[in-house]
Each structure stands twice: as structure tokens, then as C-alpha cells.
Amino acid sequence: MSSLSQVNKPRLSFWQIWNMSFGFLGIQFGFALQNANTSRIFQTLEARPEDLAVYWLAAPITGLIVQPIVGFYSDRTWHPIWGRRRPYFTVGAILASLALCFMPNSPALWVAVGMLWIMDASINISMEPFRAFVGDLLPPAQRTAGFAMQSFFIGTGAVVASLLPYIFSNWLNIANTAEEGTVPYSVKYSFYVGAFMLFITVMWTVFSTKEYPPTTEEYEKLKNREKRKLDNEIGNQRRFIKTGVILLMIGAVIAALIFNRSVEKELYVLPGGLMIFGAIFLLSAFYIRQQRSYLGIVHMAADFLNMPKTMVQLARVQFFSWFALFSMWIYTTPVVTKYFYQATDTVGKAYNDGADWVNFLFAVYNGVAALTAFVLPVAAKYTSRKVTHLAALTLGGIGLASFYFLQNPTFLIFSMVGVGIAWASILSIPYAMLSGSLPAEKMGYYMGVFNFFIVIPQIIAGTILGFMLTHLFNGQSIYILVTGGISMIIAGLLSLRVDDRDEVIIRK
User: Fold this and answer.
1) CA-CA distance, 297 to 303, in Å (whole number)?
2) What is the domain extent for residue 242?
3) 280 partner at 20 to 30 Å CA-CA among 127, 183, 199, 207?
4) Same-domain pairing of 260 and 388
């Protein structure tokens, strides 16, 4: 067997990059329907606005667990027919398509929350290896274009998916209202179309794209991976114990503060997560003591503590970017329906018209992202990736904050143009900067771990936004979007501090 090095990989044609990215079109059908309609489904099933954030926690927690595990094992997978990443594409597509069909038919709120968990896990199984796919198959000079192609499909898929309820209700005269506790048919049919598209497009990538096989040496390592022990066991054991104890102590202190102040129970999610990660590091140290450092959990813990510098710097950028996005996804529907359509009754026409307009607005920002995706590599070429990302995130932050100053819902289209430019950059520039700093044999795992810095801010947002809405903003959800706008601008400023080594190599 032969494999191509990072530097010597051949340039791929436009259509080869198209085929390897095409599955993202369907994946984004799933995510867009989830992002634009989950709060609507929850509220239809009698969820209170102040509880929406905690119900949404199912999605990021699932990604936190699934993506690094899928990435770790996809790095260690090889099948002569299915390859390395494509088995995960296939399994995830099947499960996600089934979940999309069931989600709008949930008979109760707790079922809908559970289906969000299952649906998000399934989509993540397919999505995570797509990020590593670019690093696997493209040379450094084409990676920005590769991630831009993914952004194009993400934007295109989200435009169509976000418009589906509007199209069914306004063009095909499918009812966009239903009796209390029932999701309208316009939303149900949209989810069915999304399930079909997700499966078909992912399968297109699976059957149209081939992966480079591992070298003979790499293949032997894959076969004997269960025998590989961790290097420097004693040193890693000490680091695991130190990290585990620190995380447990911080988690315990935060939990005690929450208990003493008798505030919302969902705030326990954050210290609970810290304590779980602390326990994982201590368990890894215990396995080393037992001479079982070959276990996957031990290797994952060690690699986590040895993240490349660029990845740590990008983590800060991702934190503030995704905190802003999660704020938008949760609260755009309550904001638009309440402040622009003066409606809170989920059965009424005004509320559902407002919810449909949210789908249209989400289609706008995703459409702008699809068009912007091919402009970003050009802008980065003449400036830098960091400056391009700063400019895009600043426009997105201004767009979110502008909700506060507008009164006509039509003008929100201009707000979403800024958000769309930021979204295109968030989906491509950080990954292009990251991929050049990662070792090839750990590309999938580190791409999965990078998802931590997408998921953790979402968990924090889901944990504290309800608290902020109640105790800081007096129930005025519009201020959540303003907070998101400020967070996105902070992310842009932090991007200037990223050490983009890959770009330096390309420019030389």
C-alpha cells in the first residue's frame, strides 16, 4: 500500500472537491431544519421560553460526546472498499434520516427533546469525518477552497431547508397551523424532504470519492492498535491526575455556589461536565497504573492535553463565535414572534407567520453564506485569513445587535446579510487555519476535539441564557441577541492572535 504525504498530495479538480463535499448539502438540510424549527416544535409542545435553552442542551452535549469518539476511531479505521471515513458517513446518514422523520411527530415534549438528542448524534456521526476528509485528501494550498466548498453546500442546503415550511404553506397551500400540541403539516413535510436529501447526498459522496490507502507501516499499526501503549506513561499519568483533580475541584466549587444561591437547576450542567471530564482523566491515570495504556480513552486523554498551539488559540475564537450562534438559534423565533409580530400564542396565525419569517431569515443568512464562501479565499489571499475572519465576524456581530434597533421585520433581512457573511467564515476559515497544524494520523480525532470548542460554548449558553433572560434581562429576549452580537465581535478580535502556520507555508 502507498500513501501520500501532506505536502505531496496532488491537486484535485473542481468536480472532485465538489463530490467529496456534496454530502454537506444534505447534512445541512438536517441541521437547518433542526436550528430553525426545534424551538417552534418545543413551544408547540408547551415548552416555556425560559426553558428552551436547557432543552437545547441535548444537541451540544451529544456533539461533545460523539465527535471526538468518531474522529478517534475513524483515524484507526481502514476497509479496502469503504475506506476510512465513509463507513461513518453511511451509518450517520441512515440514523439521521430516520430521526428527521420522527422528530416532528413527537407526541410529547420529553419525546421531542430525546429525538433532538438522537438526531444530533446521528448527524454528528456523518458530519465530523467530513472535516477530516479535507485534511486527508487535499494539499495545504487547496484546503481553504475545500472548506469553502463545504460552506457553499452548507449555505445552499440551509437556504432550501429553511424555506421549506414557507414553500409548503405559501406556495403549496399546506397548513402551517394545527390543533394545540400538534406540529403543522408544513413543518412535517419539510422534515421528510430533509431526511431524503440527507441520505441521498451523503451516499453520493460515499460512492463518488475514494480515499488514499494507508502505507504498509500505517496499516500494520491499524491492525495492532489494541497493542499500542502510550509513550511516557509515568509523565502522562501525573498530568492526568493533576488535571483530573483540578477539574473536580473547580466543578465542586461551582456546584456549591449554585446550591448556596438556590438558582436554576440547569446551571449544574457546567460543573457536572467539569467533574465528568475530571473523572475521565483520573480513570485514564488508573488504566496506566494497570498497564492498560493501550486503551482508546487513555490515548484520547493524552492527545487532548497535547493539542497544537494553533488549536488552543482558535479555541478562544470558536468559543465566542458559537456562543453568539447558539443565542441566535434559540431566541430568534421568540424575538421575532414577540417583538415584530406581537404574538406569543403558538396556535395563532400571527405566531406561525412570524415563525415562518424566521425560516425565511435563516434562509437569507445561509444563502449569503453560500455566495460568500467563494469570496473568502480571495479575500484571504489578498489580506490574510485572520483579517478576513475579523471582518466577517464584525459584520455578523453588527447584524445580530441590529435586531434591537429595528421595528419592521422586513429590515431584518439586512441584519441576516451580516450574519451570513460571518457564518460562511466560521464554517471555513478556522478549519483551514487548524488543518495545517494537525498531525495527519490524528486528523479525525483533533477535528472531533475541535468540536469541543463549538459545543462547550453552546452548553454554557444553554446553561446560562435562561438565567440571564430571567434575572438580568427581565424576560426581554431581544437582549440575548444583542449579547450574541457583542460575543461575535470579540471572537473576531481574538482571531488576530492565532498563529496560522499553514498560511505562512503557502505564502512562501
Assistant:
1) 10
2) 229-293
3) 127
4) no
197 and 341: one domain? yes
Contact (Cβ atoms closer than 8 angstroms) between residue 390 and residue 492: yes
Domain end residue (candidates: 272, 293, 314): 293
In a domain, 299, yes or no: no
Domain for residue 68, yes or no? yes
| Same domain? 191 vs 117 | yes
Using CA of residue 201, residue 203, residue 207, residue 210, what is the dihedral sign? positive
* 221 pLDDT tier (thresholds 50, 70, 90): low
Torsion 457-463-466-469 (CA) sign: negative
The percent of residues in the chain predicted with pLDDT above 70, rounded, is 92
> Are 129 and 71 in contact, with CB atoms under 8 Å apart?
yes
**Is 5 part of any domain?**
no
Does some domain include residue 39? yes
Rounded to an integer, the average pLDDT of 334-363 is 86
Tallying the residues shown for the chain, one arrives at 508
Grid coordinates belonging to 313? 488559540
Q: Are residues 172 and 254 in the same domain?
A: no
Positive or negative, the Cα torsion across 349, 326, 53, 411? negative
Report pLDDT digits (tens) over 75-131. 878 888 888 889 999 999 999 999 999 999 999 998 998 898 888 888 888 887 887
Distance (Å, rounded) from C-alpha 429 to C-alpha 500? 10
Q: Environment class of residue 355 by beta-carbon count within 10 Å: exposed (0-12), middle (13-18) or buried (19+)?
A: buried
Report residue 47: phi and psi, to 5°: -75, 140
Confidence of residue 266 (pLDDT cuts 50, 70, 90): low
> Given 293, 325, 345, which residue is the final one in a domain?
293
What are the cell numbers at 492?
473576531
How many Å apart are CA 99 and CA 118, to the nearest integer? Answer: 7
473: three-class secondary structure by DSSP: coil
Statement to judge: residues 194 and 243 lie in one domain: no
Number of domains in the chain: 2
Q: Is 494 left (phi over 0), alpha (psi -120 to 50) or beta?
A: alpha
- Give the DSSP letter string of 96-155: HHHHHHHGGG-SSHHHHHHHHHHHHHHHHHHHHHHHHHHHHHS-HHHHHHHHHHHHHHHH
Predicted confidence (pLDDT) at residue 263 exceeds the cutoff of 70: no
Residues 449 and 316 reside in one and the same domain: yes
Determine what percent of the chain is predicted with pLDDT higher than 90: 38
435 & 489 share domain: yes
10: CB partners within 8 A, 6+ apart:
4, 139
Q: What is the pLDDT of residue 399?
A: 96
Least confident of 113-122, 323-332, 454-463: 454-463
CATH number at residue 157: 1.20.1250.20
- Same domain? 269 vs 325: no
